[in-house]
Amino acid sequence: MIRAVCWDVGGVFTGSPHDAIAAIAAEHGLTHAQLSGAVFGDLAGERGHPWHELEVGRLSLREAWPLIEERIAAIGIDLSMRDIMRRMGADPFDRSIVHDTAAAFAEAGLAQAVVTNNVREFADMGDGRGWRRMVPMEHMTVVVDSSVVGMRKPDAEIFAHLLGELGVDADEAVLVDDTPVNLDGARLVGMQTVLVGSDPAPAMTELRSLVLGDPIG
Hints:
Blueprint: E1 4-7, H1 17-27, H2 32-40, H3 50-55, H4 61-74, H5 81-88, H6 96-107, E2 111-116, E3 142-145, H7 146-149, H8 156-166, E4 173-177, H9 180-188, E5 192-195, H10 201-212
Parallel strand pairs: 1-2, 1-4, 2-3, 4-5
Helix pairs in contact: 1-2, 2-4, 6-10
């Protein structure tokens, strides 16, 4: 029985960063893996990559961005991190279904959490709410931000921390995420998982079936 739903942010409540990276890479004659590796490193845990150091709070944005731009230049393209972030903000899909699903879970009395690999400076950008303005925070009882806790997905310790904050066993929680390696990490600790694709609608159907028993199809 699912007692807690744990939500990623980017690619779930927002457009897919993976899709944006793939599109930019194609425009420059690169593979997705080449550009993603330069910008984000090995998503499974390349220790020391500037983006990973950002996500666990060991580097500031000011320190990390020039280091990442050096890696981008090394694969032969002239592209700033600001340009990449701007492209990652675009989203062709309606995300209201994700908000509606979170609202349905709140009405059902389920605990909900945000567990995000994020950057400390993204917490208060824009109107002061930062990334939280994209998430129905009124439904979230726990927030685990990698840059605050010093741990990141897919490592087991961040999921252990998350489950402890929620007060549930691993098999009572489901992770909703757009990055397969993060789901792999969650499954290794015993959590259930749902992968969100470019269009979030199929994943929300699967999730509601898993959590609420809604029929599929």
